[in-house]
Amino acid sequence: MAPVPHSLTARGRRLARELKAHRERAGMTLDQAAAALGWNRFKLGRIEAGKTKATAADVERILDLYGTEDFVHAALIQLARDAGRRGWWTAYSGVFTGGYVSLEDEASEIRTYHVQLVPGLLQTEDYARAIISAGIPDDPDEVNKRLHARMARKTLLSRPDAPTLRTVLAESALRQLIGGPQVMRDQLTELNRAAQRSNIDVRALPYTVGAHAGAEGSFVILGYADPLDPDIGYSEGIYGNVYIEGADHVARCNAAFDAIWGAALGEEQSAALIAAIAADL
What is the pTM of this model? Predict the structure, then answer.
């Protein structure tokens, strides 16, 4: 399960794959191509692995060497420019230190399973503040900075080209009392309100299901509209974040999510359980 580079975007992943494919079509080894470019083999290797961003000038030199067609040449140079664009999240560089938000921002479909907490994209401001404050209780300025960043990230689901979000919440996440009864009640009410939007589907996984495919923890799968951009899985924890990119590993993530989705309550039953939990607070 190899980690993807922290700064990589979906466009950057695509560019890295294309550059490697064109080298192989040109019949050159990594060593041969690097030598012809006057580079250390590790520089080219890191570009092909997506660990180093290739500039438009780098891409132009590489493609000149491989003798690619003019239309491919132009398309990949533009892709390199697009991959290097600064996104809205760069204003929160001290908060979003990894590459997840940039990958999420380009996704056309987001599928998530959560065991303990409501996902960030669906959190109310008070709920998010309670979670963030618990982690850094003595720094209100940092709490506010992180809160603003999280609320800015939520706007992804309201854009004209918003991705679809399919999320399954374990009953434990729905009952975890974050911020007190009123905060939690408001959060659960907001979940049901959000689920009425055409691009959001929220399902509940009740305790009564017993053992299931999500017993090992929360995870996210990001899907992309372009067939050249394969799905990527993501899981985070106290010891770091894991990006799941290998085809076999991603296939297992997809199978696990499908099994969890199948075990979860239907749309109306999920809304009813969420409303009942809120009413009990």
Answer: 0.79
CB atoms within 10 A of CB 178: 20
> Is residue 2, in this structure, part of any structural domain at all?
no
Residue (of 67, 3, 6) closest to 33 by Cα position: 67
Q: How far apart are CA 89 and CA 153, in angstroms?
A: 8
SS3 content of the chain, % helix, strand, coil (to 5): 55, 10, 35
Residues 154 and 109 in one domain: yes
Cα–Cα dist 49/43, whole Å = 10
Q: Where are the alpha helices (DSSP H) in the chain?
A: 10-25, 30-37, 41-48, 56-66, 70-83, 100-105, 125-135, 140-154, 171-175, 181-194, 247-263, 267-280
Please indicate, yes or no, if residue 1 is contained in any of the structural domains: no
**The tokens of 242 are what?**
């894991």
Give the whole-angstrom CA distance, residue 281 versus residue 262.
28
Chain segment 33-85, per-residue pLDDT in tens: 889 999 988 889 888 887 787 888 888 899 899 988 887 778 788 777 776 66
Sort strands 219-223 and 109-114 into parallel, antiparallel or unpaired.
antiparallel
Domain coverage including residue 73: 10-83
CA distance linking residue 131 with residue 137, whole number of Å: 10
The answer to the question of residue 4 being in a domain is no
Q: In what order do the strands lie in the sheet with 219-223?
A: 200-205, 164-170, 109-114, 219-223, 232-237, 240-244
Beta bridge partners of 241: 236
